[in-house]
Amino acid sequence: MATMSRSGYGSDDEDSTPAMRRLRRLSLHLLQPSDRPAPEGANSLVPAACAGRRRAGGLDADAAALTAYLRGRHRATQDRLYRFFVERPELHTPVELPMAAHRELCFRQMAALVREAGVRPLSLMADDPDEYFAVMEAVGGLDISLAVKFGVQYSLWGGSIINLGTKKHREKYFDKIDNLDYPGCFAMTELHHGSNVQALQTTATFDSVTDEFIIDTPNDGAIKWWIGNSALHGKFATVFARLILPLQGKGGEPADMGIHAFIVPIRDLETHAVLPGIEINDCGHKIGLNGVDNGALRFRSVRIPRDNLLNRFGDVARDGKYTSSLPTINKRFAATLGELVGGRVSLAYSSVGILKVAVTIAVRYALLRQQFGPPKQPEISVLDYQSHQHKLMPMLASAYAFHFARRYLVDKYSEMKKTNDEDISADVHVLSSGLKSYITSYTAKSISICRESCGGHGYAAVNRFGDLRNDHDIFQTFEGDNTVLLQQVAGDLLKQYQQKFKGGTLSVTWNYLRDSMSTYLSQPNPVTARWEGEDHLRDPKFQLDAFRYRTSRLLHSVAARLQKHMKTLGGFGAWNRCLNHLLTLAESHVEAVILARFIEAVKSCPDAKTREVLKLVCDLYALDRIWKDIGTYRNVDYVAPNKAKAIHKLVDYLSYQVRLVARELVDAFDLPDEVIRAPIGMQSEAYAQYTQCVGF
Hints:
Layout: H1 12-15, H2 18-31, H3 63-70, H4 75-86, H5 99-115, H6 121-127, H7 129-142, H8 144-164, H9 167-178, E1 184-187, E2 203-207, E3 212-216, E4 224-227, E5 236-245, E6 255-265, E7 278-282, E8 295-299, E9 302-305, E10 315-316, E11 322-323, H10 329-338, H11 342-368, H12 386-419, H13 422-453, H14 465-473, H15 482-501, H16 513-520, H17 534-537, H18 540-577, H19 579-604, H20 608-628, H21 630-635, H22 641-660, H23 662-667, H24 673-676, H25 686-693
Parallel strand pairs: 1-5, 2-5
Antiparallel strand pairs: 2-3, 3-9, 4-8, 5-6, 7-8, 10-11
Helix pairs in contact: 4-7, 5-8, 6-7, 6-8, 7-8, 7-11, 8-9, 11-12, 11-13, 12-13, 12-19, 12-20, 12-22, 13-14, 13-15, 13-19, 15-19, 16-18, 18-19, 18-20, 19-20, 20-22
Catalytic activity: a 2,3-saturated acyl-CoA + O2 = a (2E)-enoyl-CoA + H2O2
Keywords: FAD, Fatty acid metabolism, Flavoprotein, Lipid metabolism, Oxidoreductase, Peroxisome, Transit peptide
InterPro entries: ACOX_C_alpha1, Acyl-CoA_Oxase/DH_mid-dom, Acyl-CoA_Oxase/DH_mid-dom_sf, Acyl-CoA_oxidase, Acyl-CoA_oxidase_C, AcylCo_DH-like_C, AcylCoA_DH/oxidase_NM_dom_sf
């Protein structure tokens, strides 16, 4: 019997036999394909990529072809805006800028876009939402503060006129909002209430003698807070308040008709002085977005004409009689908020753009930066380290997945605006809630990972991660706190679940539940649970079935838990007891929707080589998500131990494969230098540009 070395492996003599050399080289081949040159000798066995694992370098990734497929219909509009700003260096946002100067610059940037570049944002939002969101992305690439101020003016203030007002409001305000003559605000949030809009305390009491509403802030908790554009530039505000009708309640008490929106002038159109009865204070310096002038507003018996009620869903006649096409306060409230989903669509859309910027900087720097290497050989790129691939390649895959998900969201939103179909509106409400929450949370975490992956140079302000992180962070909160939005998704899933077992129809986004819930009720197949072949694991049917099975299982189990706890805790208590379960359910569903859109985008790609690259990226996205939640699949025997191990190995391998085309994948985002701006993220001469920034 051959003796064993102290390390536990064969002795040096044994290792030198042809059989052992072949086994050792074969093991290297199985672990990872090698780029090492072939050793001399005719009988040498060299590691080579097997047919099922062709090197991605062989895919011949073409950044131009990828760009052509990714590019939206309105890339020409974006390019025109980029060129406009390149030619106007006085409109560029410097790295260091005091808050007051940043605010004034943001307003000048927005005015230049509208009055010099000829952009008509409100018209675009009304007529072509896809182009409007493309403009928003371009604006955000220049300065996120500018994008948010832009969104307040058009998505929120202008959007409230379009979506909550009627013809008389559009005729009076539309053009002057569009050309920026009427800068405005969206005054919903209060000091004591943000997410719980139905509990707002500001009041609008009708005075039938003067035919006016009286806007009041009854206590400090009702002060309107964080109102963008209000501290400096706003002349109007859409104020959300409780509509109070005196003497029309039970026993002659005032009747509270619920939350309505009112147009309230806050500054003189000529002098810009704050109007009587209105107090405006500055919310001050923030963690980020300091180009946006957030303020706090208090109203003391401010009178506005009755016509200033945005009356699409409820109106008050001259005699004080209230009418509405919707029978209850809750239905009117739901309709009102349902018309404001454009803000969530915009945030999801913009967050994907910010993720692309962060990933592009991090990947380009990781390709450039060289540290350590084999003895007496050149240093290697940090992106050649498996740990770095593990950080950045699934993130790059996610950026692609989110790109196609947001395209789907905008298409659905555009369809909703054209058709006013109630089912599509309900679908978009939940879809936008889920994608806004999931994407903004993912992007926020990813920016920090990108900063860390760039080491000390990632900490330099000029390399942008600090501003990206701080400016984007609030995306997780405004237009709906992410935790609250996920609960809306979970609530709708439960509603659909109930419909399923009552024989009702399922809406388009959820129709996969019909089959996957039926599958859940049967036990996992013990044969397929053990399949570990690469063809099987990279089959989109397996991937999507796994995502949907997980969602259906979570839905079925949380429904049972809620039913159990409601008996002792009531509805609210049961919901709170199961809250983490519900949030996991919502995230699982959103991931399934994202993967479905990515798979569809891969199938629809007309160019075969580009399709093959996208398939590789899609596989990494799907299998990385499965691996990150492998415990769920293992607990129900959906995935056997050997299959879990195979998934883990394949994720590492696919990360390596994606690394080989990482440069082409980030170049395909087609982000111009004026959007990237970070010296370490430039396509060429990165170190030279970086040293110039500090004076060399």
